[in-house]
Write a structure and sequence with these properties.
The chain is of the alpha/beta class. The chain contains 20 helices and 26 strands.
């Protein structure tokens, strides 16, 4: 049954989120190196947007067109046109900001230098560097009619499109991959005179500078001309259902399919001549639904996330040393600490070491019998997995659920699965029906002849690297009801035909949607009966229409609904008669806001939950996700106070309004408050 309500298109809302990232690059109060890194984050986000969102829309258009559904074809095509128009506008802003940031970098004696500005000394040094360090990684693809360029390109790389010209002959073309995986894309040139000035040149420019060395003696030419480009593919894949294929083999095959998937976007140097653009489009088989976007000279800008600070410390954000919580450090073991009380960590403010230490101790503790953990994304060098291997060596049973379909991490997860299996870990390769996105760990320990379970519930991945830049909650508890239900989740993954009852946990796709809806409706009933009612949410994305409808109904019942939504928000707040009681903000700052939190007023006795699930249909119906209640009153208070600090942010919070214009929250007479810095001070004071 179609909804009577209206929603903001999620694709345009996603672009509004990335526009907030551009705002951080534009904010002159941010240190200059951080500004250029935000441009890298913007670029990385845009890659994912095209791989996932635009690719899905393109598939929709093809399906609707083939089905003869003219109305939906027209709607989807119009949305694609809106996306392309918005992206072109944002690209112009991006290019302007890049020029501005580069100019401001030079004021701090950091100069991003181009080939035209090199001195003789610098050219000489770079030629030597190119011959000895770069050339070994260069292997041009000489293009002819039998070369399928689409299948040859890696969509995580930047390329140069090279025109090989000879007088009175047809121009020939080649491509060169910029070997940014093999070496740094940023090359610091040794000082020539003043040591104050630091010169940085991009690998792309070095290759362009010495093109003749690459082709001389192999391909005849009178002149060479090269311009950068990058291709983005559809990231989705189909898995063949042949019974005799193992799941790992299927995933490996699906990754091969991704390598030859159609492009959905090509971005190229705006200075690339039109005849070269035309030839490139033809070779990449770009359709009318795909984007060819002209921009600045440097493509694959995501590498700028790692732009080096070769200047003073103040050119990047000051470090906020992670906090070692007394809740753990005052005890001899992690198990003594958790036995004493439930413990809540909030990364990256707290040290992720507390979790890795929990697993390390479990690996050799003689009382530990079984360790269960599920993996979605882990670090490339994971101490956690090394500890699990140690646990097997110490005679413990270890079960690890690995989600092979973690987008963009499939290959790494396949390799980890093989390594763990070889080490004797019982590896469960997810579920064929549902992605496993929960963040669970259960350690079962023998105490006084009884098996006691210690459980971890989190909102983020078990990843040492992202724990330094993503904000996420981790709950450690010895509550046996919660821990037993966590074990039921592992049982559900391995035996989906079994039906354990989840009294406390919100488990997708079993009961999360119905439990959340029941709590929203309970708040509506409380309000109608004159009791205290209110809903406070923090999620990454809010696009599920059924849940949005419930929030609209809550607003119409007079309930104040306050939300912090980092990314996509299809709910339209502030509409009279529909959502005038709903307010939404988004915070973009130095750390990526990642937790999912639900707070229900519940007649003055708040119910608080942390969850791995966003409010998206896929998270409610097509993934295994876990939301956990916070029973400890002290920890409930902490979460509520942290969310209140964020709701009072006057520096990095933007208002999500009906048009998603991204205006900053008006400060008025309130004090300046940057919630991420304030939260660090708040947590530090609790020690």
């Amino acid at each position: 049954m179609p909804s009577i309500y209206t929603y903001y298109p999620k694709e345009l809302s996603w672009l509004a989120f990335n526009e907030r990232v551009l705002q951080e690059a534009a904010d002159r109060k941010n240190p200059i190196v951080e500004r250029i890194r935000f441009l890298g984050i913007y670029s990385s986000n845009m890659d994912e947007f095209y791989k996932v969102r635009v690719a899905a829309l393109k598939r929709q258009i093809y399906i609707y067109r083939d089905e003869g559904d003219d109305e939906r074809t027209e709607q989807s095509t119009h949305l694609m046109e809106q996306i392309q128009e918005k992206v072109l506008s944002m690209t112009e802003t991006f290019d302007r900001l890049f020029k501005e940031v580069v100019a401001r970098l030079s004021r701090y004696n950091i100069i991003l230098i181009g080939p035209a500005d090199l001195s003789d000394f610098q050219q000489e040094w770079l030629q030597d560097y190119f011959k000895n360090k770069v050339l070994r990684h260069i292997a041009p693809i000489l293009l002819h009619s039998k070369v399928d360029l689409v299948s040859r390109l890696n969509d995580s790389a930047t390329y140069l499109f090279v025109a090989i010209k000879r007088e009175n002959q047809k121009t020939k073309y080649a491509t060169i991959e910029v070997p940014a995986e093999a070496m740094s894309r940023f090359v610091v040139i040794p000082p020539e005179g003043s040591r104050k000035k630091k010169y940085i040149i991009l690998l792309d420019d070095i290759i362009q500078l010495f093109l003749e060395i690459i082709f001389k003696g192999f391909v005849p030419f009178d002149s060479l001309e090269a311009y950068s480009f990058k291709m983005t593919r559809d990231s989705e894949y189909s898995i063949n259902d042949e019974i005799d294929e193992s799941f790992v083999e299927k995933m490996s095959e699906s990754m091969k399919q991704r390598l030859i998937a159609e492009p959905v976007r090509v971005i190229c140097d705006a200075d690339m001549p039109k005849d070269m653009q035309k030839d490139l489009k033809k070779r990449l088989k770009i359709s009318s639904y795909d984007s060819l976007i002209e921009g600045g000279a440097y493509r694959n800008f995501k590498d700028f996330i790692g732009f080096p600070n070769v200047g003073r410390d103040y050119l990047e954000n000051p470090k906020l040393p992670a906090i070692s919580t007394l809740d753990f450090t005052e005890f001899d073991t992690a198990f003594d600490a958790i036995k004493h009380q439930d413990i809540l960590l909030y990364y990256p403010y707290h040290r992720f070491l507390h979790f890795t230490e929990f697993v390390r101790q479990a690996a050799f503790d003689p009382s530990v019998k079984h360790i269960r953990l599920n993996i979605y994304r882990v670090a490339s060098k994971s101490r956690i997995i090394n500890s699990l291997i140690d646990a097997v060596d110490n005679g413990k049973t270890v079960t690890v659920v690995v989600e092979l379909r973690a987008r963009f991490d499939e290959e790494a997860n396949i390799e980890w699965s093989k390594r763990m299996t070889d080490a004797g870990i019982r590896v469960v390769l997810g579920s064929p029906s549902f992605k496993i996105h929960s963040k669970l760990c259960v350690v079962s320990r023998e105490e006084s002849g009884e098996l006691i379970h210690y459980a971890h519930f989190g909102t983020g991945n078990f990843n040492e690297k992202t724990a330094k830049i993503y904000t996420d909650f981790s709950l450690f508890t010895r509550n046996q009801e919660l821990a037993t239900e966590a074990i039921y989740v592992f049982d559900l993954i391995q035996h989906p035909y079994r039906r354990n009852k989840f009294q406390h946990l919100q488990v997708s796709p079993m009961n999360a949607r119905t439990k959340i809806q029941a709590m929203v409706r309970q708040e509506i009933q409380n309000a109608n009966e004159g009791h205290q009612a209110g809903i406070t949410l923090k999620v990454n994305n809010l696009v599920d229409k059924e849940l949005i409808d419930d929030l609209y109904r809550a607003s119409q019942a007079g309930i104040k609904v306050r939300m912090i939504v980092r990314g996509m928000c299809s709910l339209i707040p502030g509409v009279k008669g529909l959502s005038e009681n709903i307010s939404v903000i988004s915070i973009v700052d130095r750390f990526l806001e990642h937790p999912r939190v639900m707070i229900f007023a519940n007649k003055g006795d708040p119910k608080v939950f942390i969850s791995s699930a966003d409010w998206m249909t896929r998270n409610m119906d097509n993934r295994i996700e876990v939301g956990c209640p916070i029973f400890d009153e002290r920890l409930r208070k902490q979460i509520i106070e942290i969310i209140e600090i964020q709701l009072k942010d006057t520096l990095k919070a933007r208002v999500i309004d009906a048009n998603q214009t991204n205006r900053y929250v008006r400060r008025g007479n309130r004090k300046k408050l940057r919630s991420q810095v304030e939260i660090y001070s708040y947590l530090k004071a609790l020690q």
